[in-house]
Amino acid sequence: MTRFLRGLAKFIALVLVAGGVGVALGMGLSSLSEDNPAAPVADAQTTESSGSSLTPTAAKLPPATATTTAPATVTTAPPTPPDPLAQIRVRVLDARLFTDETPSGRQEQRARVTVRIRAGNGGSERVPLPSPILRVGSVRVPTDASGEQFEPLAAGASHTVTLRFALSGEATPKVVRDRRARILIAGRSVAMRVKVQAPAS
Q1: Judging by DSSP bridges, how do beta strands 111-121 and 188-193 pair with one another?
Q2: Phi, psi angle pair for 121, to nearest 5°
Q3: Could you tell me if residue 114 is inside a domain?
């Protein structure tokens, strides 16, 4: 009986010792697990860098393209050359009207006007003169091609011619009544007094 009790006491002591050792081992393992956690901790720098790559501000934008504006071109109109006709001097020396007293002449009121006129070139260039025109009121009469005509005037030259104009209709009695007419020559209108002469032969 005594031997049995001794054996029981040794068994209980052995169990107690084994239990204490197990508790100590459990506590040690628990302490180790707290010092070295299994869950990995993400690198803050890596997280920040990966997160910043997703932000739109960090994305590379294409360089801005500079826009250049061409300077405005100012065009200046070339100067107007002087009018060569402005250098022409004109003088009416004589103007006469000759009525046509033939039956057909009286019916059509025909007449002939002669104008003796001098033109001089005071410029430094040769100037051609447009054909003069006789104006009676609103009627305009060109020069008679059978009469004299102005030739181009050389620089410093003058020329005197007798121009002839054939009138008809209402222009003839108007000149007879007013004794006036105008001649358009060298870009100007020159007034002149007209002498009414004997009927034209």
Answers
A1: unpaired
A2: -105, 110
A3: yes
The answer to whether 98 touches 197, Cβ cutoff 8 Å, is yes
CA–CA gap between residue 173 and residue 111 (Å, rounded): 9
Name residue 73's amino acid.
T
pLDDT for the residue numbered 17: 53
Q: Tokens 């007798």 map to which residue?
A: 162
Dist. CA 167–CA 148, nearest whole Å = 17
**Residue showing tokens 């002669």:** 114
Residue 131, CA distances (Å) to 135, 145, 156 in order? 13, 10, 20
Nearest to 175 by CA among 142, 145, 135: 135
The token pair at 148 is 């004299």
Task: Kindly report, residue by residue over 81-101, the tens digit of the pLDDT.
Answer: 778 889 999 999 999 999 999
Answer yes or no: is 8 within a domain.
Answer: no
* Domain annotation covers residue 154: yes
pTM of the predicted model, to two decimals? 0.59
What is the CATH number for 131? 2.60.40.4170
DSSP 3-state of 133: strand
Query: What DSSP designation does 17 have?
Result: H
C-alpha distance from residue 123 to each of 26, 82, 130, 149, 187 (Å): 132, 11, 17, 21, 15
Nearby residues of 171 by Cβ (< 8 Å), 6 or more positions away: 109, 136, 137, 139, 141
Task: State how many domains the chain has.
Answer: 1
